[in-house]
Amino acid sequence: MRSAEERKEIAAAAFARLSNADTVTQEMLETALGAEIGPNMNKNYGSLILRHGLWDEAMNIAMQSEDKVAFRASWSLENAYELNKAAFVPYAGRLFADFVATENGSVQRTYSKMIYDITHRRLAVMGDPTAEAVAAKAFDLLLDPAVRVAAKVWCMEILLDLCPRIDWVAENLREAVEAVMQ
């Protein structure tokens, strides 16, 4: 088993290879995210995603990779988003669709947090069919006992914001929250 110091060195070397590359591919990013991870991994890879415009690549990894790597990709993506929200806005539609499609609990938490922030700040607007699909997924996650609390909280926030737009959300949210609280 590697020592903590060895793991940090491996993580630093993997990140250094990417940082010094002229171009970074999805495969390179996925390999690095699957390696040992050191301090500030999410911030370092978030900066890398932003610098190289790897939004789609990070989202592909979050949807297609093993759970650990998918989580790291989504967490890094969230950090890239926090560094430059405007740069991410063109990818908001993909985020909404991927949120509806993903079954990875860690990705669900990260994506629900991002969706809430994007919609609450009105950085992007969901069309009616997308809003309905996001609301249905958020309700499913909210009522699923296996879903972690953090994801449920962000889903409640999304649903609260969607109440004025979608009648069935407004009609059912209070009952759903009460059910979760029991």
Summarize the structure in words.
Helix 9 (128-143) packs antiparallel against helix 10 (149-162). The model has no long low-confidence stretch (mean pLDDT 91). This protein starts with a helix and ends with a helix. It is built from eleven helices and no strands. It is an all-alpha fold and 182 residues long. Helices cover 76% and strands 0% of the residues.
Distance between the termini: 43 Å
Give the helix proportion (percent range): over 70%
Total strands = 0
Indicate the mean pLDDT. 91
Gyration radius over CA: 18 Å
How many helical elements? 11
Task: State the order of secondary-structure elements, H for helix, E for strand.
Answer: HHHHHHHHHHH
Overall 3D form: globular
Structural class: mainly alpha
Summarize, please.
The protein is an all-alpha fold and 182 residues long. Helices cover 76% and strands 0% of the residues. It has helices at 4-19, 26-34, 41-52, 55-64, 67-83, 85-88, 92-101, 105-120, 128-143, 149-162, 167-181.
List keywords for this structure.
11 helices; mainly alpha; 76% helix; 182 residues
Helix and strand arrangement:
Elements: H1 4-19, H2 26-34, H3 41-52, H4 55-64, H5 67-83, H6 85-88, H7 92-101, H8 105-120, H9 128-143, H10 149-162, H11 167-181
